[in-house]
Amino acid sequence: MKFPFFGRKAKPDPEPVPPVVAPPDEAALAREAIKQMLRAYAESGKSEYGMSEQELAVAEADPRIRRVREATGPERGRLATAMLRSHYLTQGLPFRAQDSLTETLKQLTQGPGCMSREAFPDFVDAWLSHGTWHVSDGTVVRLAQGIAETEGLDEPMRAAIQRIVDHIRSSRAYNGPDVPLSGESRKLIQRYERILNPLAPDENPFTEAWQAPFRVERFRALAAHAATARSKTPSDRWLKPAPELIAAVGVSGFLDAFAETVGLVERSKTPVDTLQSDMLRGLCWLCGSTGTPRAAQLLGRMVVACGYKLPGVGARSTKGFTGAVDALERLGNFEALAQLSNARNRVKTVSLATALVSSLERAALKQNLPLEDLEELVVPSFGLELPGVRTDELGDVTARLEISGTADATLRWFKGGKEQKSVPASISESFVAELKELKGLVKEIEQTLGAQVRRVERMMMTGRSLPFEQWQTRYFDHPLLASMVRRLIWRFDSPEGERLGIAPDGELIDLEGRPFAPDASVSVRLWHPIEAGAAVIEAARDFLISRELRQPFKQAFREVYILTDAERTTETYSNRFAGHVLKQHQMRALAGQRGWSYSLQGYFDSCDFPTLDLRQWGLRAAYDVQVPDSGGADMDTVSSPSGIALYVLTDRVTFELIEGVGIVPLRDVPAVVFSEVMRDVDLFVGVCSVGNDPTWVDQGALRGFGAYWQSYSFGDLSATARTRADVLRRLLPRLAIGPFSAIDGKFLVVTGKLRKYKIHLGSGNILMMPNDEYLCIVPGRAKETPSSFVYLPFEGDYTLSVILSKALMLIDDDKITDSTITRQIKKAT
Fold first, then answer.
1. 534 φ/ψ angles, rounded to the nearest 5 degrees
2. How far apart are CA 634 and CA 611, in angstroms?
């Protein structure tokens, strides 16, 4: 446990219990091992980390250190206690030596029988007094659990566990009585309380709302068995009674109750109680054991629901998540793997998304397929037919479900060939179950489409290529994907050369509108503008605009980043996006959506930066960000109640090897990889910079950064902003604001009835002409944006929508009724 310092006076830790000295031989052995490490350090070359890896290896080979590491039985626990009591752990040791000793402690405190019940209280006292940062919370709680299960609890051990709980409460809530414990602290306390007060074998409390469907008597035996799911995966012995338990209530009855539980978890705004999460995991295993398609669909929803990140807490239920993933992997059929693939693109927590990828990779290995092939093969069709339409006859009414956008589906009703304005009364009265199923299907299709858009966009970087016939089956003629992929530009490679094609009306044509029909010898991949010249890119953009095609993500208008002279000079790093102030929580959320790993930093002992694993190329991209100096500001203005910094400062972008050590020269990074990584970083800055916040203007949070806000809000355009300028140049003649607007350098200049305005194409902030006085307009969060009724050639650029919203408002500035805006305009006039 690490205790942060936020500029407030912390409550002192509880007075440490006077140390109980370990047996002399073990205490002496531990001290000698640590002294040997110190001697080795003193004789070393003292590199940046204190010792080279070779010097450390020699030191660890010393018999005194090996003797400690090779200890067996309860002696391991006593040695760990002696090491924790030694002041050498915190004085004078270099990084590598400290890491080595911490690893030694880890070895001593793992595995069955490493500590006796009698030794545990002494260990706890030493741990709380000297070494909570050297032995993890998880290790200690597992030690307590293991001892409780094998030897039971006596009063000294109960007292030791209670001291740990008291320590967590006192040391982690010192920000004040109104600041709640973190989710991690609450979970730790719950685990210790379960050890102190274990459930009886037949005890089955229902304290959580999601358990309500299983409170009835007929589910008692089944729920009791589910509550015993304490291992990571179900054993054959655990699964053996499942068929009988489910048969007793009926498969349909059990799945109905489980469906209610899924819905309750989805709507929950609090995490699943750790004391009850075993039952949730067990219910997932039981659901999977039914082997039905409905079970796969419910488990897929449970994966997403449990993996959802609650603000300030984390995932709703890690055990529920892993239980549902394991159940789907065990099912292993088409429906189950489709749910895993869909969840991969919807779960934002990187560690959980990584677990999903690992599960899919194992499934792909079983099928003897590459992961990419597996994900393509399991995309569901939901009973749709080309071009993304499904019809169901319900009495004399026809329900027509159709894909109406990139990730939208609509349900329309027809009676006697005439479309109905709402759901017909006969459907609401006589087809209740069918109506519920169709509405659920619309939601599932929309969620799956969103996940598939993200999967297809990844192909912009990976450059995945398929034989034409495979591409045609898996993409072009797939009922779910066709409407999306036919609006994208594909590259068709053959021995005769390459050709670009798109199919807005279902027939492949080139960018000049000429039809063509590839043969089986052709390979197909998603086109990336980095591989084309300016003329081809212009032709692609003109084609989209002329036909008013909206792509599911930026492709023809995608920003391209190539090495600059400055980056060739620095060789191993890029400062292109250094020197920005970003909102940290927003950046972390966006980084997770783009597949980057990042943990929030605070004004305590924490350090991290966003990284993106590029395993196909053996690389890892990193964006260096740091917590800024508070500059004496009130900590409430620069950090959250839990001490997490609200802002971070950005620095360089680098690429390193995943395997091995070393920074990779930028010139050796594949061009498309470099461009896509830099595009992500540009997105982080473009979306998360405080310069986008019209109300920030140096609020006193970070003194001295008002100049940054000014320079970003109205400074030079990034690649993303330059793309907006290009889009607007092409669109203005088609828009209502066209006669009153023009692009002028960095701005969209809008002529209103009262004044002229300059809207910055990067930040969306506004200056009023002629004296460039700032006009603060805070954009709303209405669902309907200009892109809902104004044609744009791609989806996903929120700032462009904001710019158009402001322009539409300002051309009729005499009709604005919001007094917070009119006061500023009238004052300026």
1. -60, -35
2. 31
Please, how many CA atoms are within 13 Å of residue 161, restricted to the half-sphere of its CB? Answer: 25
Please tell me which residue, 299 or 64, carries the higher pLDDT value: 299
DSSP label at residue 730:
H
Rounded to an integer, the average pLDDT of 192-199 is 78
Highest-confidence range of 201-205, 274-278, 288-292, by mean pLDDT? 288-292
Contact 255, 300 (CB under 8 A): no
- Do the beta carbons of residue 666 and residue 572 sit within 8 Å? yes
Q: Give ∠ CA 176-177-181 in degrees, rounded to 5.
A: 85
What values do phi and psi take at 465, rounded to 5?
-120, 140
Residue 543, beta-bridge partner list: none
Interval 589-606 mean pLDDT: 83
H or E element at residue 144: helix 137-151
Given this model, what pLDDT does residue 491 score? 97
397 neighbors 426 (Cβ within 8 angstroms): yes
Specify the amino acid at residue 290: T
> What number of CA atoms fall less than 13 Å from residue 191's CA on the CB side?
19
Q: Which of 146, 142, 141 is nearest to 117 (CA)?
A: 146
Pair 272, 316: CB distance under 8 Å: yes
Amino acid symbol at 459: M
State residue 126's pLDDT score: 85
Phi, psi of 614, deg, nearest 5: -120, 70
Helices 798-810/719-731 angle, 10° precision: 50
**Do residues 153 and 118 touch, judged by C-beta distance below 8 A?**
no
Q: Is 634 left (phi over 0), alpha (psi -120 to 50) or beta?
A: beta
- Could you give the CA distance from residue 763 to residue 721 in angstroms, rounded to a whole number? 8
Average pLDDT taken over every residue of the chain? 84
Q: Measure the CA–CA gap between 765 and 803, rounded to whole angstroms.
A: 8
Sequence-separated (6 or more) residues with CB below 8 Å from residue 457: 552, 553
Other C-beta atoms closer than 10 Å to the C-beta of 184 total 15
- Whole-angstrom CA distances from 483 to 66, 477, 505, 555, 755 are 64, 9, 9, 16, 44
pLDDT confidence of residue 675: 96
Two structure tokens written together for 728: 């607007």
Q: Pick from 703, 700, 621: which is nearest to 658 by CA?
A: 621
> How far apart are alpha carbons 74 and 82 in whole angstroms?
13
Q: pLDDT grade, residue 730 (50/70/90)?
A: very high
DSSP secondary structure string for all residues of 75-124:
HHHHHHHHHHH-GGGTSS--HHHHHHHHHHHHHHT-STTSS-TTTHHHHH
User: Which residues share a beta bridge with 566?
Assistant: none
Task: Judge whether residue 635 has pLDDT over 70.
Answer: no
Question: What are the backbone angles phi and psi of residue 407, rounded to the nearest 5°?
Answer: -135, 35
Q: Which residues are paired to 385 by β-bridges?
A: 389
Supply the DSSP symbol for 612. E
CA distance 164 to 177: 20
Q: Is the peptide bond before 311 cis (omega within 30 degrees of 0)?
A: no
pLDDT band at 560 (very low <50, low <70, confident <90, very high): very high
Task: Output 165-172 pairs: Cβ under 8 A, ≥24 positions apart.
Answer: 165/189, 165/192, 165/193, 166/14, 167/13, 167/14, 167/128, 168/1, 170/11, 170/13, 170/14, 171/1, 171/3, 171/10, 171/11, 171/13, 172/1, 172/3
Write down the residue that tokens 């994208």 correspond to: 488
Give Dmax over CA atoms of the chain in angstroms: 94
Q: Which of 383, 376, 413 is nearest to 398 (CA)?
A: 413
State how far the alpha carbon of 334 is from the alpha carbons of 221, 374, 376, 535, 793, in Å: 31, 10, 11, 44, 35
CB 123 within 8 Å of CB 132? no
Q: Take residue 829 and report the two structure tokens written for it.
A: 């006039």
Distance CA 705, CA 697 (A): 8
DSSP state of 739: G
